[in-house]
Each structure stands twice: as structure tokens, then as C-alpha cells.
Write a structure and sequence with these properties.
Blueprint (H helix, E strand, L loop, with lengths): L1 H38 L4 H7 L1 H24 L1
């Protein structure tokens, strides 16, 4: 009985680690795509002002979500 409980604990930890890894990968990728879509045009400063909410959302995804999820990976 103890061996089965120990296996389930490791399985849950592995699944949570996998979910955190996928969330970190997707948050950085989506944030990077949002920011790149704004600053990739030749005259990007007016575009930045017009799309500041997308820029902030991309920065939050890249900086905060990605960082905190990557910090959480070794904790698991």
C-alpha cells in the first residue's frame, strides 16, 4: 500500500512539472509573438502607443508568468 501511494506522489509531481514546463514555454512564446507583432514594423513608435495594452500583456507574459513558473519548476 505504501509503495502505491509513493508511486502516485511521484506521478502527480511529474504531471505538475510537465504542466509548469508547458505553461512556461507557451507564456514566453505568446508574449514574444505579441511584442514582436508590435515592434516589427519599420516605424514602430506610433504602433507601440496604439497597442500599449498588447505590449503590456506580452511583457507580463514574458517577464512575470515565465519567471515565476520557471522558479516553481525546481521546487516541484
Amino acid at each position: 500500500m505504501k509503495n502505491i501511494r509513493n508511486k502516485n506522489t511521484h506521478r502527480i509531481a511529474a504531471r505538475v512539472f510537465g504542466i509548469f514546463f508547458i505553461v512556461a514555454f507557451l507564456s514566453y512564446g505568446i508574449g514574444s509573438a505579441l511584442i514582436d507583432s508590435i515592434v516589427s514594423v519599420p516605424d514602430f513608435l506610433p504602433n507601440v502607443y496604439g497597442n500599449k495594452s498588447l505590449l503590456i500583456m506580452g511583457a507580463i507574459l514574458m517577464i512575470l508568468v515565465h519567471t515565476f513558473v520557471n522558479i516553481g519548476l525546481p521546487v516541484i
